[in-house]
Design goal:
Chain lengths: 511, 318
C-alpha cells in the first residue's frame, strides 16, 4: 500500500549518448502532493532526466512507474495522457497569439469546424480562479509580463489535466517579489494534490519551497534528503562534490579616480525606440559597480553603447578623462576597455576557430603576433599556452576549436583574453551565465582580483545574488532609466526587487 | 464616356487583373504562416498556367464552357505537385527557403517551354478557345448603380477569389487547423511540445500555397494571356508576394493588396481609354505596377511583421 503514495518512480535510469552517460543509474520518487527539488549543476543530467520523464527522450535502460504502473513514455503526447506536464525554462509560447490561444493549442475543443473559444475561456477562467493565477485570456502574450507568461505556462499544463508538474529553473527570470508569489502558487498546487518537481540550482529556493530534495552529480544519484534536515552548505557540497566557499573574501574597496563617466546617455534600440533614456553614472578605479535589473530594460544597449558597438543618440561617455562617445570599437579597446559579452558563443568567441586564435583576437594585428599583415603563429601559440596555464583552461591542446570546450572553459578563454589586455575599465555582462558553481566561483574571484589591482569594473547582471555579492555600489535599471542606487550591505532583495519593477526609491539622490 | 461607364470599366478590369494575384497571395499567406517562406510562387504560377492551357487546348471541344473552370483545378493540382519540391527541400532537407524557392522560379519557365516544344513542336501554344469571359450575375446585375459596376459583365473568378479569401481567413483564425498552422509559423518548437506535427502542418501550408498559386497561374492564362509562352508569367508571382507582405500575412489583407495591385495593372492596360490617363505616355503606365510593387516593398517590408519563425527550419531532436 505504501507504494501507491509514490506518484512517480524512476528506477535505475540510464541514458547513453554515444558512450557519454548523461544519466547513470538515477533513482527518483515523487509522492502525491509534495514538492520535490531536483538539484544539480549544469550538465549534471537534470534536464536529461526530466526530458525522459516528459517523453522527449527515451531512456537507454531503467523503468518508469506512474501511479505504480510501469509505463513507456514514448512521446510528449503519452506524457500528457499520463498527467505529466512540463514548464520549460525558455517559455514555449507564441508571442503574437492570445493567452487563450496559447493555452488551448493542441488541445482545442471544437464546435463543428470552429474552435469553441467561449467554452475554452470559461474553463480557463475557472482554472485561474481556482489556483489564483490571474491572467487575462484575451491579452496577447507579448503584452503581459514574464511572471504572467509563466502563469500561462502553468495554465497550459493544468488545462491538459496534469497531476505531475515539472518546472525547469522557473525563477531564473523573476524578480524577488515574483519569486515569492511563484512559491506561493507552487504550495497552493501541492495542497490541491498536484505533485511538483522543481529543477533548480538555487539553494535558497529549495529551502523555501521544497519538501524533499534529490541531488544528482555527473549523471549519478547522490541521494534524497528531507529539506528540513540539510543545511545549504551541505547541499552545495553534495551538488559540487567538494567544499565550496559560499562567502567570497571581499576586502574593502580602495577607490581611485573616476574611470568611467556616463552623462545623459540616450540610445535607441533596433526598433528605433529609446532604450536608454538619459542615464548618468560614474565608476571609479578599484570599485565594482553592479547594474541590476530585469532582462530587456536597456542592459544590452548600455553594454553595446559603452563598447562602441551601438550608436549613441545623445549624451556622453568619458573613459579615463577622454571622450569615447561614438568612437570605433578598436579605439575604445585600445584606450583600455575590456569587454566580457553576455552571449559568449555569439559575441565572445569564433566557435570554429582554435583556442589560440580566439585568445589572439584582441591583438592579432600587432607585433609580436603579426607584422606587415603576415601572422606569426609561433607567437600566437606561445601566448595561448601561457594564458591556458595562467587561467587554468582545461583542454588537451591550444589548437582545438573553441567549440569543443565546456561552457565554463569557453568563458575562461574570454576572461583570459580580456583580462590579459590589462585594461583600466572592465565591462562584464552576465559573466557567469549558464556556468556551474565551480566556474562561477572562479570568475568571481578573478573579478575581485582585478578590483584589488585598481581596475574599474562595471558588472551588468540579471543574477541578483551575483550583483549583491560582488558590487560596491548597485544601480538598478528599469525601462531605460536608473530607478535607484543602493549599497549592497544596506539593501535587501525586496528593495532591489521593487526598484527592478520601477518603484522609485524614496529620498534617493536620483529620484 | 460618362462616370458610370468609366467606373464599371475600371472595376471589371481591376477584378480581372487582381484575381491571379489574390489566389497566389493567399497561397503565400498559408505557406508563410506555417513557417515556410515561399518566393517560388512565380514558378508555381508558371506551372499552373502551363498545365491549364494544355488542358484547355486538349479538352475545350468536348467540355465546352466548363473547360476553364476545370482548367483551374488542373492548374491547382499541378502547382501543388510542383510545390512538393519546395516542401521536401525545406522541410525534410532543411534547405534555405529562399534558395529553394528561387530554384522553382528558375526551373518552371524552361520546363514549361520544353514541354510545349515536346507536345506541340513549337515555342508557344495556340490561343485557347474557351476562356473566362465576362459574366453577369442574374438578379444582382439589375440593382441600380451597384449592379452595373460590380455585377454586370464582371469576372466570375474574381468573385470566387474574394469568397475564397474570406473562407481562408476564417479557417486561419477560427479553426483548429488554422491555429495549429499559425503555431508552426510562430514557434515550431513550442508547437512540437504541444503535440502538434510540425512537419505535417508545414507540408499542408506549402501544398496549399502550391494549389492556390497554380490556380492563380491558371486564372491568368485562361482569363488574360490566352496562351502559354516563356513570357506568360512575368512578375505576377512576385507581385502576389508583395501583396502578401503589404497585406500583413493576413488573407483579407492579401486580397485587398492584390486588388490594389490589380488596379495598378489594369490602369496600364485601359489607361488610354480613360480621360487624364490617356495623356500619360504608355511606357510609364506599363512600368507603374512594378514601380508600385518595389515602393510598397521598401516602405512596408521592415515594418510589416512576418510570422516569427517564417523562413526558419525546424529540426526535431531525436
Amino acid at each position: 500500500m505504501e507504494n501507491t503514495a509514490n506518484v512517480i518512480e524512476m528506477r535505475h535510469i540510464v541514458k547513453d549518448f554515444n558512450g557519454f552517460k548523461a544519466n547513470d543509474d538515477i533513482n527518483l520518487t515523487v509522492k502525491k502532493g509534495e514538492i520535490l527539488a531536483l538539484l544539480g549543476e549544469n550538465g549534471a543530467g537534470k534536464s536529461t532526466l526530466m526530458s525522459i520523464l516528459s517523453g522527449l527522450l527515451m531512456p537507454t535502460s531503467g523503468d518508469i512507474l506512474v501511479q505504480g504502473q510501469k509505463v513507456a513514455v514514448k512521446s510528449p503526447t503519452v506524457a500528457k495522457d499520463l498527467g505529466i506536464g512540463m514548464v520549460h525554462q525558455h517559455f514555449m509560447l507564441m508571442n503574437s497569439f492570445t493567452v487563450l490561444e496559447n493555452i488551448i493549442l493542441g488541445h482545442e475543443t471544437v464546435k463543428g469546424p470552429k474552435i469553441d473559444f467561449k467554452k475554452a475561456q470559461q474553463q480557463i477562467e475557472a482554472l485561474s480562479a481556482r489556483y489564483n493565477l490571474n491572467v487575462d485570456p484575451k491579452k496577447k502574450v507579448s503584452e503581459i509580463t514574464v511572471a504572467q507568461q509563466q502563469r500561462v505556462e502553468i495554465l497550459k499544463i493544468l488545462y491538459r489535466g496534469a497531476d505531475i508538474m515539472i518546472f525547469d529553473e522557473p525563477t531564473a527570470v523573476l524578480t524577488p517579489q515574483e519569486i515569492t508569489e511563484f512559491i506561493q502558487i507552487l504550495k497552493e498546487l501541492a495542497k490541491e494534490g498536484k505533485s511538483i518537481i522543481l529543477i533548480t540550482h538555487k539553494l535558497e529556493e529549495i529551502k523555501r519551497a521544497a519538501d524533499r530534495v534529490t541531488v544528482i552529480r555527473s549523471g549519478k544519484s547522490v541521494g534524497t534528503f528531507d529539506v528540513a534536515d540539510v543545511s545549504n552548505n551541505r547541499l552545495a557540497e553534495l551538488m559540487v562534490g567538494r567544499h565550496v566557499d559560499m562567502k567570497l573574501d571581499k576586502p574593502a574597496a580602495k577607490v581611485g579616480k573616476t574611470m568611467l563617466q556616463v552623462s545623459d546617455l540616450q540610445v535607441k534600440n533596433k526598433q528605433g525606440v529609446l532604450a536608454l533614456k538619459g542615464l548618468s553614472f560614474n565608476l571609479r578605479a578599484g570599485e565594482i559597480l553592479g547594474v541590476a535589473g530585469i532582462d530587456g530594460n536597456g542592459q544590452d544597449e548600455l553594454a553595446r553603447a559603452l563598447t562602441g558597438m551601438q550608436h549613441i543618440n545623445a549624451g556622453k561617455v568619458v573613459i579615463d578623462g577622454e571622450d569615447m562617445t561614438n568612437q570605433k570599437v578598436r579605439k575604445i579597446t585600445e584606450h583600455g576597455v575590456s569587454y566580457i559579452p553576455s552571449d559568449r558563443q555569439k559575441y565572445g568567441l569564433i566557435l570554429p576557430f582554435s583556442i589560440s586564435d580566439n585568445l589572439a583576437l584582441q591583438n592579432y594585428y600587432r607585433p609580436p603576433f603579426s607584422s606587415h599583415h603576415v601572422m606569426h603563429y609561433d607567437a600566437i601559440n606561445e601566448h595561448a599556452k601561457q594564458l591556458i596555464e595562467q587561467f587554468d583552461i582545461r583542454t588537451t591542446g591550444s589548437d582545438l576549436p573553441v567549440s569543443d570546450l565546456s561552457g565554463g572553459n569557453q568563458q575562461k578563454v574570454i576572461i583570459a583574453r580580456e583580462l590579459n589586455l590589462d585594461s583600466k575599465l572592465i565591462i562584464a555582462f552576465q559573466p557567469t551565465r549558464g556556468l556551474d558553481v565551480g566556474a562561477i566561483e572562479y570568475i568571481h574571484k578573478q573579478l575581485l582580483l582585478e578590483r584589488a589591482k585598481g581596475k574599474a569594473i562595471l558588472l551588468i547582471s540579471y543574477e541578483l545574488d551575483e550583483v549583491m555579492q560582488l558590487s560596491d555600489r548597485i544601480i538598478v535599471l528599469h525601462d531605460g532609466n536608473i530607478s535607484g542606487e543602493v549599497k549592497p550591505e544596506k539593501t535587501s532583495d525586496e528593495e532591489l526587487g521593487l526598484l527592478m519593477t520601477g518603484v522609485k526609491k524614496e529620498g534617493s539622490a536620483l529620484a | 464616356m460618362n462616370l458610370m461607364t468609366i467606373l464599371s470599366l475600371l472595376v471589371s478590369s481591376t477584378f480581372v487583373y487582381s484575381t491571379p494575384l489574390i489566389f497566389t497571395s493567399l497561397g503565400g499567406v498559408y505557406s508563410e504562416n506555417s513557417g515556410i517562406t515561399n518566393v517560388g510562387l512565380e514558378g508555381i504560377m508558371t506551372m499552373g498556367a502551363f498545365a491549364s492551357v494544355v488542358f484547355n487546348l486538349t479538352f475545350a471541344s468536348s467540355l465546352g464552357k466548363l473547360t476553364p473552370w476545370l482548367g483551374l483545378v488542373v492548374g491547382g493540382v499541378v502547382g501543388m505537385i510542383f510545390s512538393l519540391l519546395h516542401a521536401v527541400a525545406t522541410i525534410n532537407f532543411h534547405a534555405d527557403h529562399v534558395i529553394s524557392g528561387t530554384v522553382l522560379n528558375l526551373m518552371a519557365p524552361p520546363l514549361g517551354v520544353f514541354l510545349v516544344k515536346a507536345i506541340y513542336d513549337k515555342g508557344q501554344t495556340e490561343n485557347i478557345t474557351q476562356s473566362f469571359g465576362y459574366f453577369s450575375f442574374p438578379g444582382l446585375a439589375d440593382i441600380p448603380v451597384i449592379g452595373p459596376i460590380f455585377f454586370r459583365n464582371t469576372s466570375a473568378p474574381a468573385w470566387l477569389a474574394i469568397v475564397v479569401s474570406i473562407a481562408l481567413w476564417w479557417i486561419l483564425y477560427k479553426t483548429r487547423f488554422g491555429l495549429r498552422l499559425r503555431a508552426c509559423g510562430e514557434n515550431p518548437q513550442a508547437a512540437d511540445t504541444m503535440g502538434i506535427n510540425v512537419y505535417g502542418m508545414r507540408y499542408a501550408g506549402v501544398l496549399i500555397s502550391g494549389l492556390l498559386g497554380g490556380v492563380g497561374g491558371a486564372v491568368f492564362a485562361q482569363a488574360i494571356s490566352g496562351n502559354f509562352s516563356i513570357s506568360t508569367i512575368v512578375g505576377q508571382g512576385f507581385m502576389a508576394l508583395a501583396a502578401m507582405i503589404f497585406g500583413k500575412w493576413n488573407p483579407l489583407g492579401g486580397m485587398l493588396a492584390s486588388l490594389f495591385f490589380g488596379f495598378a495593372q489594369s490602369l496600364s492596360i485601359i489607361g488610354n481609354q480613360l480621360p487624364f490617363f490617356n495623356h500619360i505616355p504608355s511606357v510609364y503606365m506599363q512600368i507603374a505596377p512594378y514601380v508600385i510593387t518595389i515602393v510598397i516593398l521598401v516602405l512596408f517590408f521592415g515594418k510589416s511583421v512576418a510570422p516569427a519563425a517564417d523562413g526558419q527550419n525546424y529540426i526535431k531532436s531525436k
